[in-house]
Design goal:
Number of strands: 28
Shape: elongated
Distance between the termini: 92 Å
Number of domains: 3
Strand order of the largest sheet: 18-17-20-21
Radius of gyration: 38 Å
Structural class: mainly beta
Strand content: 35-45%
């Protein structure tokens, strides 16, 4: 059928089945039986052509108001705008004897000798031949939005995107792929089926939060109605960007959070998430990266400083050292003096001080305290508060800091 309402046929032309009549104009829908075809015109009338053993190409003269058509092996069906169904052609199995219960129909399908109607309440009714179980509609079937019929089997599409099949199964016609979901449309052949499915939507707003020394909590927004679950991937940091990605965990439907535990300290991890179903995977969400707690400072015992560098406490990024004095010394406060500079130590050392430290990242959890130790400070910088700092370079190029009198 073209967008101009014409019908095009090709292939076997026995009995003129591939030769549409001149009256097949302004066509809005088409259907094919075993050896005959039907066309629904815009005015609600039906045209038929092809093999006509049982009158299957001759719709009733008074038929009008048709909104859908279906062709069986050698019978034809029409659904009218009032929800009733009309049948003509072969009736050897009662396929054109429409049951009185077929009311409020919204869709129709025809097979070899079995016919079906989908009612507006989402239920399916069948009639005609049942030689191989094609009329054995599963009990309780509901929520149906589309139906189709093969030669001796039938299929229903439900509103949740799943399909239900029944009837004859010599070639696996009743066995859809495992996990099939998100089905959008169905078509049923003589002994096979065709489905249209869609991939789920991409998750958004992935967030990462430190929960403890080696735990990162993740959460995201589920934008999909048809996912079977989520695939969360992780990568170690490599020069400020994600390294090699690998699957961390597969999560179930509607899950929007996960806590990654037993992580290495002083390491940065990157994350991304995607949804999936039987049709395909979605694209990836935004990427987020977050470091875990830094390692505890080294054992300070026995260290001696030969160079002193003063710096204001709290200005080091991304990690600072907070220092606790021994009971013999008051708690250190932050230096506030501007313009602090590095200075070399003098030849004569000054008295020692006992202290410990721990690292505190800009975000997250502080490390454990180092071992208490003693070492000599050789000079105190000019500062309006009695503190000095021994400065070392950390793994990220930033500094560690210790204070003492």
């Amino acid at each position: 059928m073209t967008n101009g309402g014409a019908v095009v046929c090709w292939g076997n032309n026995a009995n003129g089945v591939s030769t549409p009549p001149a009256s097949a104009t302004n066509v809005v829908a088409i259907a094919a039986g075993k050896f005959h075809n039907l066309a629904l015109r815009a005015d609600g009338t039906v045209v038929g052509w092809g093999l006509n053993l049982y009158g299957e190409t001759n719709p009733p003269a008074s038929l009008n108001g048709v909104v859908a058509i279906a062709g069986g092996f050698s019978c034809s069906l029409a659904l009218k705008s009032d929800g009733t169904v009309v049948g003509w052609g072969d009736n050897t199995a009662g396929q054109t004897n429409i049951p009185a219960s077929v009311t409020n129909a919204i869709a129709i399908a025809a097979g070899n000798s079995a016919c079906f109607a989908l009612r507006s309440d989402g239920t399916v009714i069948g009639w005609g031949g049942n030689s191989l179980g094609e009329l054995n509609i599963p009990a309780g079937l509901s929520g149906v939005v589309a139906i189709g019929s093969g030669e001796y089997h039938a299929m229903a599409l439900k509103s949740d995107g799943t399909v239900v099949l029944w009837g004859y199964n010599p070639f696996g016609s009743l066995t859809p792929p495992v996990g099939m979901s998100a089905v959008m449309a169905i078509a049923v052949g003589e002994e096979h089926n065709v489905l249209i499915t869609c991939a789920p939507a991409i998750p958004q707003s992935l967030l990462a939060t430190n929960l403890g020394p080696n735990q990162i909590a993740l959460s995201w927004t589920d934008n999909s109605w048809n996912e079977d679950g989520f695939k969360l991937e992780r990568a170690l940091d490599s020069g400020g960007a994600p390294g090699t990605w690998s699957l961390l965990v597969t999560l179930g439907i509607n899950v929007t959070s996960y806590t990654n535990t037993a992580l290495a300290l002083n390491s940065k991890y990157w994350y991304r998430v995607r949804s999936y179903n039987a049709a395909a995977d979605s694209g990836f969400s935004n990427q987020v990266g977050l470091p875990t707690q830094p390692l505890a400072p080294i054992n300070l015992a026995g260290l001696r400083s030969t160079r002193i560098k003063s710096t204001c406490h709290g200005r080091i990024s991304p990690a600072t050292r907070t220092v606790s004095r021994s009971s013999a010394h008051p708690t250190a406060a932050a230096c506030r003096a501007p313009g602090l500079k590095s200075q070399s130590s003098p030849a004569t050392p000054t008295p020692t001080a006992t202290w410990d430290s721990r690292a505190t990242p800009r975000t997250g959890t502080a490390s454990a305290h180092s071992t208490r130790g003693r070492f000599s400070l050789h000079q105190r910088d000019q500062c309006d508060h009695p503190c000095a700092a021994v400065r070392t370079v950390g793994s990220g190029g930033d500094t560690d800091q210790q204070h003492a009198d």
